Amino acid sequence: MSDINPITHTKSVPLLSVKGTHTSIGQQIGEAQKQAIRNSIENARVLIEAIQDDLHLSWEGAQTQASKYMPFVQERYPQYLDELYGMANGADVNINELAVVNFLEGVTVDALHLTKCTSLSVNEQNTANNHVLIAHNEDWLPDDEPDLYVVHVKVEDEPEFIAMTYGGLLPNIGFNECGIAQCCDTVYPQDTRIGIPRVIVSRAVLGAKTISEAIRRTIIPLRAAGYNHLIAHESGEMYNVEVSAHNFDILYSTEGYLAHTNNYLSQKMKALEDHSDELIHTRIRYFRALHLLGKTKQHSIETLEEILKDHVNFPDSICNHSFIDKKPMDREKTITSLIIDLTSRKMKLAWGNPCLNQYQDYEVAI
Ligand SMILES: [Zn+2]
Q1: In what order do the strands lie in the sheet with 227-233?
Q2: How far is the CA of 133 from the centre of ligand 1 (A)?
Q3: Ligand 1 geometric centre to CA of 348 (Å)
Q4: How far is residue 252's CA from residue 237's CA, in Å, rounded to a whole number?
Q5: 36 CA to middle of ligand 1, Å?
Q6: What distance in angstroms lies between residue 359's CA and the mean position of ligand 1's atoms?
Q7: What is the pLDDT at residue 112?
Q8: How remote is the CA of residue 322 from the centroid of ligand 1, in Å?
Q9: CA of 136 to the centre of ligand 1 (A)
Q10: Are the C-beta atoms of 335 and 308 separated by less than 8 Å?
Q11: How much distance in Å is there from the Cα of 353 to the middle of ligand 1?
């Protein structure tokens, strides 16, 4: 499969602007990214079939599982289900297959320990120009790397936002016109259940107008599981909100910088972590990121780029290359690396591993 995973990219990640109702923006994304959405469904199908003996789950069974999450979304967040239906319609794909892509972590009962993202933020106390900066490496299946895009969304009843996404996944990593940015890192709680999927919860955060509203949205009742949500505001307020299905903790930065990877940091949440002994790589990335963030109080976009390119503990480094000679469910790499300047409302994004690809500017006035 590595032949469909280009290591270097000669083009910039596509930027798509959509506007209208939730159904309409889904439809527009579906039409514009039809092939990428179809690819992501095919990649999910191939993955599930490759590991179906381990999971005792067929592709049809995965769709049945995914459909069980739908009533929870319909009850609490019908507008995001409208986006999914619009996307399915625009791309002419089956809604249940698209639901598998979006609810994949829940459908596979978190057997996919592959979302090894790293998120960072620094506020005006730690940047040379007093800006608030957020950075994120998205580590995921190499097969989805070609289907990356940036979306600028103006939806009728929510703040405008810019986010990165890929294939048929609802966008959730980006920033909005109220000066709120979010990065998500998968964590592994023991208390997962059928409920509102993580991707829906994090999509909702981009619709928040205040910090407290953003945090409230991460801990919505009847959620299926939880991410860590690194939530930063343009004022310099920055939080890690660690969430599971039934619990959460809010970690605040007093030093003016934050990092998070894929293990819980709060004592309360550590007690709920599944298979902690398998999460050594992520702890090493966390401490490495903290070490590098603490080296200077004069951070800039360039210093954060260097952190995101770091190769200590290669291939399970912050710049992740852990996909060669791995089993299908264990393959992962950095498929994009991004930096948000929340003060000037700009995003830079490298397609693929940032050690091999240039960062490109995405400037959209919001
Ligand atoms: Zn690298």
Answers
A1: 15-20, 148-155, 161-166, 173-176, 180-186, 227-233, 238-243, 248-252
A2: 21
A3: 17
A4: 8
A5: 24
A6: 13
A7: 64
A8: 10
A9: 14
A10: no
A11: 5
CA of 365 to the centre of ligand 1 (A): 31
State which H helix or E strand residue 79 sits in: helix 78-91
Strands 238-243 and 227-233, bridge-based pairing: antiparallel
**The residue to which tokens 């801990």 are assigned:** 219
3-state secondary structure of 339: strand
CA of 304 to the centre of ligand 1 (A): 14
With the CA atoms of 255, 260, 266 and 271 taken in that order, what torsion angle do they form, in degrees rounded to the nearest 10? -170
Q: Which of 355, 290, 335 is nearest to 138 (CA)?
A: 335
Distance 308 CA to ligand 1 centre (A): 8
Task: Kindly report, residue by residue over 201-215, the tens digit of the pLDDT.
Answer: 999 999 999 999 999
User: The tokens of 167 are what?
Assistant: 């294939």
Predicted TM-score of the model (pTM): 0.95
Query: Rounded to the nearest whole angstrom, what is the distance from the C-alpha of residue 333 to the centroid of ligand 1?
Result: 9
- Torsion-angle region of residue 349: left (phi > 0), alpha (psi -120 to 50) or beta? beta
Q: Give the position of tokens 């092939």.
A: 35
Structure confidence by residue, pLDDT tens digits, 111-149:
666 557 999 999 999 999 999 999 999 999 899 999 999
- Residue reference for tokens 């920055």: 238
Q: Tokens at residue 237, please?
A: 């307020």
User: Contact 209/63 with Cβ under 8 angstroms?
Assistant: no
Which domains are delineated in the chain?
2-7+111-362 (3.60.60.10)
Residue 151 · residue 14 · CB < 8 Å = no
- Name the band, by pLDDT with cuts 50, 70 and 90, for residue 226: very high
